[in-house]
Amino acid sequence: MKCKLCVSLFLMVSFLMSCAQTSTNASLTLNATAFKEAIAAKNIQVLDVRTAAEFNGGHIQNALQANWLDQKEFTDRTQHLDKNLPVYVYCQAGARSASAQAALEAKGYKVINLEGGMSNWKMNGFPVDGAGDKAQMRVEDLNTTTSSNKIVLVEVGADWCPPCRKMLPVLETLKQKPAAPFYFLRVDGGNDIDVMKSLNAEGLPTFILFKNGKETWRQEGLVTVEEFNAALSK
Q: Relative to the CA of 47, which of 21, 62, 66, 150 has its CA 20 to 30 Å away?
């Protein structure tokens, strides 16, 4: 009788431990109200996994963007997220962000998904940034700028691009102590599509150096101050 009781107790404890483990590992999803309250805190990251066109049609304030449907872009951009900070992820209806959540959790990120995505967010009347038409930079203006200045450093980037944000302090340092004087021109990677095509720039960020109107150097991704200065010095 004692043996049967011990076995029963053992099985019950094992079951409870298994349930607790499943609960601990379960992905976290918040409704729009709870999600909005959570992202109001400091030291968090908000990630929009929709396409650039969807993002430009309206997004949550301060959100980063990495298209889940483009796995190369998604991988390239999300590798720059901070694993020490939670990632609050969303898409249009919640399905893509759930898949992205699982992929990021497998890499060691703590991820919280927005239930119902942007559709649910908008239904609650919560604020949306970026909705509206913004004039594109003209290719003619790009050409005029690069030809009328001796040295021009062009950055094709965006505020919502994780590696672009990581480059901000590097660019500020470069501007303060450059190896040679230069004109800095930023191309909006989510808006200035015609200019991006003319530059043949696909990844964000992309840096291109022009000297006397001719391209002399380019690099995609993260660049150090030393690498910039070496290109400027040539």
A: 21
What are the Cα distances from residue 142, in Å, to 16, 49, 186? Answer: 65, 30, 10
Q: What contacts 130, CB < 8 A, 6 or more positions away?
A: 55, 56, 57, 58, 59
One of 3, 19, 91, 161 is an active-site residue; which one?
Answer: 161
pLDDT in tens, 205-224: 999 999 999 999 999 999 99
Preceding peptide of 86 cis, ω within 30°: no
- DSSP-derived letter for residue 141 is H
- pTM: predicted TM-score of the whole model, two decimal places: 0.74
Task: Give yes or no: 91 in active site.
Answer: no
Of 217, 210, 208, residue with least CA distance to 189? 208
How long is the chain?
A: 234
Residue 161 known to be catalytic: yes
